[in-house]
Amino acid sequence: MQTLPKSSIRPATGVFTIREMVERAGELWSDKPALCMRRSGEGFSEITYGEALERIKELATGLYELGMTKGNQVSVVGENRPEWALAFLAIVAGGGTVVPLDANLKPMEWANILSTCEVDIVIASPRFVPQMKEIAEQIGRHITVISMEEGGDISFEQLCSAGRKRIGEGDRTYERMKVEPQDLAEIIFTSGTTGNAKGVMLTHHNLGSNVNSVYQVLPYERDDVFLSLLPLHHTFESTCGLLVPFYTGCTINYARSFKSKEIIEDIKDGGVTMMCGVPLVYEKMAYGIMRAVDRAPFHKRMLVKFLLGLTRGIDFIFRGRSGKMLFRGLRKKAGLDKIRMFVCGAAAMPPKVGGIFRTLGLPLLQGYGLTETSPVVSVNPFDKPKVASSGLVVPDFEVNIDEPDEKGVGEIWLKGPAVMPGYYKDEQETDKVFTKDGWFRTGDCGYFDHDGHIYICGRVKNLIVTPAGKNIYPEEVESILVESPYILEALVKPMTNQKTGKEEVGAIVVPDMEYFGEELGEEAQSRREEIAQIVIDDVRRLCSSLADYKRVKEIVVQWEEFPKTSTKKIKRFLYKDEGIHPRT
Predict the structure, then answer these.
(1) What's the predicted TM-score (pTM) here?
(2) Can you list the domains of the chain with their CATH numbers?
(3) Which of 229, 258, 540, 575 is the most buried (most CB within 10 A)?
(4) Helix, strand, coil % in the chain, rounded to nearest 5
């Protein structure tokens, strides 16, 4: 095991249960806006921390009346909104266990989760209410469905009203409920890039310790406005976009969608200062900004490109801060002038994207984590990030690189208070990921540089081994391919050469039709053959910089985007077999 430097900017405040977090927030920042959202035709609505605490107590008390007791499992499904956050916090602070449902799953997958976890209560946004009722009938289980608006067996407001009435009549069940650090807070079913979802159990202590670690390494402040964009059922967003803001006292704004235009509008209109996202979100933002520069009048375009070159040339003098000074006007025009920090997680970010943000004076910090670790394991330091790395390990984790090769690359093993106790009702899978002496096997390959920064090479399961024994990490090649302006997405996998019968490195690539649409207009769709050749030629050009054994030999052009998880990771298992190639 290596002794590594830890990322830290301030001392710890303490490890709290989620109940302690919400009560502390409600008392310390009672009048401060906590949860805000742009409502259709209503402008922004807001709930203060004091109001949130009262709502949480009312909701929990209403849930007790519906049968929730300590340890009972209650599900939440829907888009990001204040009601989702309040439901999550009320369940967990009230002693229950939340089972968040991925809104992108199929009904059969929801049914399996609800049956496995013996869920009797589901809190859903209106569009999911009918589906939850149908699933209850299919699995033969009585499930009370609470709608976040009108409808369902009972509405969100009716539940609050019922809880408020009981509290007014002297009901003190919430106050008497004891929530301990070792209590199970949530069960999150992994998003399934491999096709095998498992229920990750996380305790109050798991989540509380990770919140405490994140607070020590990222500069969340009470004056910050956080844009909640990623799905809240995902641990990255629920920890960094809900629990850490409650721990810190900053305001949370809920984004309307993943559309780049609406994200920018929400950032600008909401005075947003920080956000967590996935690589695809930042890629679209970065390339959108650069395309806007390319469409600008000649003199403006030349000025921006001159400043871009100047920034890259003098950054070593200004320690990466020259872009902050030179591109102040561009950031303001783009609505990004108040941004203090972007954080990227869930998958590896192409270094080129991080470089664009850095050059424009927008801090974009890449991190690394897993659902099983609550989730943050590492993050780049705010004052001195390394664009290509996943940063320094956060406090309270021990890290070991198992059986490193000659380059120091091996499987990443972890220990720490944020590591899950195991998978729900699945001892066999739990035993597979823990060593006898308690190390958690992440399934990710990586290495450390001399400064202690961690670099993620890819998943052990995705590793391609050539006949000569060379290791190829598909993610490394994919990150190079998506640097092309012509390529939206890429998936690298072994493919059989139809002429030789030998297995070679192949790639399925999706052209960026938004780019070609801007270049060719309405003709883009009728010129697919020409576009495909442009894409293929650029794949070969980009691969020329790689070692020969890593170069893509077989290329398939796919016109539809890859099926993805809710955090925008490609579902690789759909492309595992040779016979599943989409049409070219």
Answers:
(1) 0.81
(2) 18-219+230-257 (3.40.50.12780), 279-457 (3.40.50.12780), 473-580 (3.30.300.30)
(3) 229
(4) 40, 20, 35
